[in-house]
Design a protein that fits this description.
The chain is an alpha/beta fold. It has 2 domains: about 150 residues, Rossmann fold; about 170 residues, L-2-Hydroxyisocaproate Dehydrogenase, Chain A, domain 2 (Alpha-Beta Complex). About 45% of the residues lie in helices and about 20% in strands. It contains 11 helices and 14 strands. It has a 6-stranded parallel β-sheet. Strands 7-10-11 form a 3-stranded antiparallel β-sheet. Helix 1 links the parallel strand 1 and strand 2. The radius of gyration is 19 Å and the shape is globular. The protein starts with a strand and ends with a helix. Bound molecules: 1,4-dihydronicotinamide adenine dinucleotide. The site of 1,4-dihydronicotinamide adenine dinucleotide (NAI) has 27 residues, from helix 1.
Length: about 325
């Protein structure tokens, strides 16, 4: 029997986690032979919801769930964590601008970064999902100076999956046949879903689609605005099950590796690749191997690509400047 892996999850009584936790406990993320301990964090007001969640997790009698902790203290939640999924965040209230959301979430991720720095396993893998995910990930890693910045990532996998699914539907091909999709940048409307390197059986996807108008007018905006379309369709509730699924996909690739001749999109600390200056959490195409990611190098970019990528970078810089006073 393998020893259990400690998985900390924040926002545990929220919508995404209502889908996520049961799938993790069933073995969908780490495999059917990997015992886990769930260390769940939410705010004190969530206590009654925690009680119900715990009862349901118990009632599933998951063979792999060997421990379960619920707490409102990040230092307890992140103690010895091997994996930390930072899903919890303040939701965007009515009349709240993105700037207000950043200000409201900054202190949460400062505190959680400090707690990870103090008590998590030194090899912890941290995925930030709570929005604005890229900048929250930046805040978290800046507050964890003793941990390797490469242990931190922000989730763009839902956008990546949305892009794969749009192409699969357009071409009536299986999702698994599509390789080398990219979503660059910020998890926001400025993200740039980029088909220009994607292939099916070594054929460029753009050639197979042969419809630039569809790519520019349908594919790109559909992926960029999908989150809002789902909120409208679900009468105000955001994408939860698909976000949970993307969390599982992101962590599986990071831990077990991306498949041969393919890559994925991950929000990670930029290192200057592709003209994106160092010091923002930006989504790049990455391959993963032995629990480490590497940015795919050497892809040719058109001027159009560069402009789109720059726009998302500039948005991230604006976001950072909004919260910079919280970091100093
Ligand atoms: P939700 O509002 O249902 O749940 C959020 C949970 O976070 C609540 O239980 C709340 O009490 C908790 N929370 C708030 N402050 C906390 C703190 N300081 N510590 C621990 N928990 C705290 O939201 P939902 O639908 O579960 O989404 C969670 C986040 O994920 C949101 O910010 C959402 O915008 C984001 N999201 C990100 C996606 C991505 O692709 N990166 C996709 C979908 C959602």
């Amino acid at each position: 029997m393998k020893s259990p892996i400690r998985i900390s999850v924040t926002g545990a009584t929220g919508q995404i986690c209502y889908s996520l936790l049961f799938r993790i406990a069933a073995g969908d993320m780490l495999g059917k032979d990997q015992p886990i301990i769930l260390q769940l964090l939410d705010i004190p007001n969530a206590r009654p919801l925690f009680d119900g969640l715990v009862m349901e997790l118990q009632d599933c009698a998951f063979p792999l769930l060997t421990g379960l902790i619920t707490t409102d203290d990040p230092y307890t939640a992140f103690k010895d964590a091997d994996i930390a999924l930072l899903v919890g965040a303040r939701p965007r209230g009515e009349n709240m601008e993105r700037k207000d959301l950043l200000e409201a979430n900054g202190p949460i991720f400062i505190e959680q970064g400090k707690a990870l720095n103090a008590v998590a396993n030194r090899n912890v893998k941290v995925l930030v999902v709570g929005n604005p995910a890229n900048t929250n990930a930046y805040i978290t890693l800046k507050n964890s100076p003793d941990l390797n910045p490469k242990n931190f990532s922000a989730m763009l996998r839902l956008d990546h999956n949305r892009a794969l699914s749009q192409v699969a539907r357009k071409l009536s091909r299986p999702v698994t046949s599509i390789r080398k999709m990219i979503v660059w940048g910020n998890h926001s409307n400025t993200q740039y879903p980029d088909l220009s390197h994607s292939e099916i059986n070594n054929m460029p996807v753009t050639t197979l689609i042969d419809d630039d108008n569809w790519i520019a007018k349908s594919f790109v905006p559909t992926v960029q605005k999908r989150g809002m379309a789902i909120i409208e369709a679900r009468h105000g509730r955001s994408s939860a099950a698909s976000a949970a699924n993307a969390i599982i996909n992101h962590m599986q690739d990071w831990i077990f590796g991306t498949r041969e001749n393919d890559w994925t999109s991950m929000g990670i600390l930029s290192d200057g690749s592709y003209g994106i200056p160092e010091g923002v959490v930006y989504s790049f195409p990455v391959t993963c191997n032995n629990g480490h990611y590497q940015i795919v190098q050497g892809l040719e970019l058109s001027d159009f690509d560069k402009r789109k990528m720059q726009k998302s970078y500039e948005e991230l810089i604006t976001e950072q400047s909004t919260i910079m006073h919280l970091l100093t």
